[in-house]
């Protein structure tokens, strides 16, 4: 643990902004065993929940047993967690059972939740009394400052998309940039990069990005490698998960920060850590400057797709980040690095074209089976190995290729929109964004989801939607696209 | 609410004695999803439970979801509360579900429990870590003073019976004499009477009895009628349940207290309240001095038996308590009351013999269907309507009568043993006590149960054993019999 970096990060730990919010309506009535109270807070929030109840009828002669469930979206209300058989840990389900021994009671739920709806099921009261809900409220938090949010103008759908995207970002901005306030509630590098980009054009909270970059620098391992994510409780600690692309994205995130904030002092302090990710990544290349493929699940993330071959994408992410390391070296005026990085990039670009570009098909292929995927094409374009016109043709061929392995996450969809914009296809970028994120809006989203398949809105890679996160940082980038590139319909 | 009596009661509210106890063994090992930790505290306790856990493996990447269950007896460990279909409120089941978000953790369970065993089921942890239990302990309470407990000598089985009985009493002695620390955790008059009798010959805590009698006097209704039980949380409040026999037992409990403590000042202060129960009970008699029968469930308790006709028993309880009111009037030297009570008793005794005694069968009968039950015979004997020799024959006929409605609760069994002793059948009393309460000891009891049928130990009147109380005040009287009457095998 690098104590110096850690102290830098902890010195700018945010004080969370706390608000008290109440549901749209607190229903009347006397509730008995089997009854359900549904509270709708009218929007997505992150925070703690409190309620006051009293008994009606005879004196309470047995505890009240309540099941309290927190739902980010409406369809969660009817889901039955007792049937959950998915492979992700069931402890993420936001559901508590509590006994209230003495009425009237002021109940403070013990944890932080992400929710729009709070469901109170009266699991058991005796026949001698019923429950009346006197009050219900939440103390909600964010480290975003609503007051400094820069204004945005667009048509109604664009305005709403911006609003939903920024609600997503805002509710993930807590003590760090979380990936999702329901799950996993922690700082991942891939998510951070996209959150930071959206943040620069909206809340402008540079300090929180700075803190997160220092945190990642602090938890680099003995070799200097940055883990894919880190924990802040009970103490700051890096995860033992390392992913080829996520480690490299430290470079991109630092460059984006330096470019947006002009804080060169900080960039200088973390430059070596960034450069180290580039050096370490080189160990994964063979003598022909081609990155090694791997069967290890999650060696490189790219997208949440077990079918996807990651080799070409890994090579392209490397090139994407090497370019940003070079830009950092230029900002910081380190000429010897500029030369070295450029020489290396030229070799690996050429290798990329030789090994991953099918000149006949004008498509990128990946792995020994020459897999064609959206991820490979998109990152191929973003790596800038080809000329702009060639890139446009790659994206066009990709859209016509029926066998191409598709994208799964909003995270990968973000990269696709970015690629379209990069090659000047703003119109297509706008249309695709409106189709994909607009699909979540049609599904009633207050915040954008971790996962979304417009063709199957109830899809989950976890074996059950119950653990899906419906406010997920990596989905917040429509606000970035709308604001940064001034996209309009 | 009588504020004067309430203040008297609250002025002597006990400070509970608190001890820290640990399970016999804290098991080693790393616990994963589906694993179970069984903690055996070696004896029955009442109190709060605490434990410390840490994670082993990778850093905790998901909350730990634990199910914590408190069992008074071993067989509860395997019972599945999710299948509970009984008619008593499911909220009495001592089971909690908790999420531990941050490890290591010091967990303080939120409520008071009655238990020997604590079961921690690991409902969900992620694949990346397991749980290690570092410590587990309970802060247990009682208002009994173990140090002042008077010694008792007997053979091994008698010593153990005394010990189990007093463990029962001790763990019910909290802020008031509770009926059971698992359920209902409150002060019932019928239970109080038996707890107090046992307390006088063991812990000698007169103050707690005094407090409870003042509490009952405080919550008498506008007419002066004392409810069957009362609540102390959030404030002292009488229940809206009134039972013919329980109201009358205020008289017996006050007399027992005065006789044991010699505290005539207190007896004088509550004499009118006691006398008022006798007066109010008279409204239930017809012009022939026979108590009205009733179809209202629970109009008179006697025993937990829906089949039992209560008419004769009610008449006998009235006589039993009238005698004690007379004894109180003698202690307090109120000659005009003595005369009046005796005149009334004579009339109601004669009516009892005329209406409820079958001279041919030499048995008491009850209700329009002339039901023969243990309860009627036992209370008939205790009412002293007949001569001693006649009473002996009643009890002997009863034991031979195959159709007699039997006893269900230890509470009614207590009365039976008391009746045997009253007619000089100490040997039979001893044998029966050893058979009945001894049966619970053979079942492994650390404390005596709310309900016990030697022929069917898993019987419950609630449709399921899961809500049975296994440390129940009204079962504590073997210590009273052993100590008071010096019974020996």
Topology order of chain A in helix (H) and strand (E) letters: HEEEEEEEHEHHEEHHHHEEHHHHH
List the uncertain runs of chain A: none
Fraction of residues in helix of chain A: 25-40%
The Cα radius of gyration of chain A reads 24 Å
CATH topology of the largest domain in chain A: Glycosyltransferase
The most extensive interface, with participating residues per chain, is: A-B, 37 and 37 residues
Kindly give the count of domains of chain A.
Answer: 2
Proportion of β residues of chain A?
Answer: 15-25%
**What is the overall number of helices of chain A?**
13
Q: Which architecture of the largest domain in chain A per CATH?
A: Alpha/alpha barrel
């Amino acid at each position: 643990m690098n104590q110096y970096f850690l102290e830098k990060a902890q010195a700018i730990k945010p004080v969370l902004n706390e608000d008290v919010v109440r549901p749209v309506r607190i229903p009347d009535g006397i509730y008995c065993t089997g009854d359900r109270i549904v509270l709708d807070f009218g929007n997505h929030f992150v925070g703690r929940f409190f309620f006051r109840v009293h008994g009606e009828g005879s004196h309470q002669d047995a505890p009240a047993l309540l099941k309290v469930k927190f739902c980010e979206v409406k369809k969660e209300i009817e889901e039955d967690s007792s049937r959950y058989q998915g492979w992700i840990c069931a402890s993420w389900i936001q559901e508590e059972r509590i006994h209230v021994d003495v009425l009237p009671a002021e109940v403070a739920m013990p944890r932080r939740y992400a929710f729009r709806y709070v469901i109170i099921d009266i699991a058991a009261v005796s026949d001698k009394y019923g429950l009346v809900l006197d009050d219900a409220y939440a103390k909600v938090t964010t480290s975003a400052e609503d007051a400094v949010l820069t204004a945005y103008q667009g048509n109604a759908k664009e305005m709403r998309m911006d609003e939903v995207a920024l609600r997503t970002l805002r509710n993930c901005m807590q003590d760090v940039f979380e990936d999702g306030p329901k799950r996993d509630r922690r700082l991942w590098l891939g998510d951070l990069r996209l959150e930071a980009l959206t943040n620069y054009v909206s809340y402008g909270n540079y300090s929180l990005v700075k803190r997160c970059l220092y945190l990642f620098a602090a938890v680099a391992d003995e070799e200097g490698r940055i883990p894919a994510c880190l924990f802040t409780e009970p103490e700051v600690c890096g995860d033992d998960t390392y992913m080829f692309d996520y480690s490299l994205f430290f470079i991109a995130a630092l460059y984006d920060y330096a470019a947006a904030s002009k804080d060169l002092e900080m960039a200088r302090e973390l430059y070596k850590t960034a450069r180290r990710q580039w050096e370490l990544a080189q160990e994964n290349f063979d003598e022909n400057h081609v990155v090694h493929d791997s069967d290890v699940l999650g060696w490189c993330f790219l997208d949440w797709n077990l079918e996807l071959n990651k080799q070409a994408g890994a090579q392209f992410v490397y090139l994407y980040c090497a370019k940003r390391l070079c830009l950092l070296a230029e900002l910081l005026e380190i000429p010897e690095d500029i030369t070295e990085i450029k020489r290396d990039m030229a070799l690996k670009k050429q290798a990329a074209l030789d090994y991953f570009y099918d000149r006949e098909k004008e498509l990128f292929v990946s792995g020994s089976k020459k897999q064609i995927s959206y991820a490979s094409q998109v990152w191929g374009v973003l790596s800038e190995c080809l000329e702009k016109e060639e890139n446009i043709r790659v994206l066009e061929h990709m859209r016509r290729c029926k066998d191409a392995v598709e994208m799964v996450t909003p995270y990968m969809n973000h990269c696709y929109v970015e690629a379209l914009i990069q090659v000047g296809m703003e119109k297509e970028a706008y249309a695709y964004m409106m189709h994909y994120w607009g699909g979540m809006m049609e599904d009633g989203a207050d915040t954008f989801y971790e996962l979304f398949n417009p063709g199957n809105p109830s899809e989950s890679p976890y074996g059950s939607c119950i653990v899906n996160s419906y406010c997920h940082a990596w989905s917040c980038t429509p606000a970035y696209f709308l604001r940064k590139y001034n996209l309009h319909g």
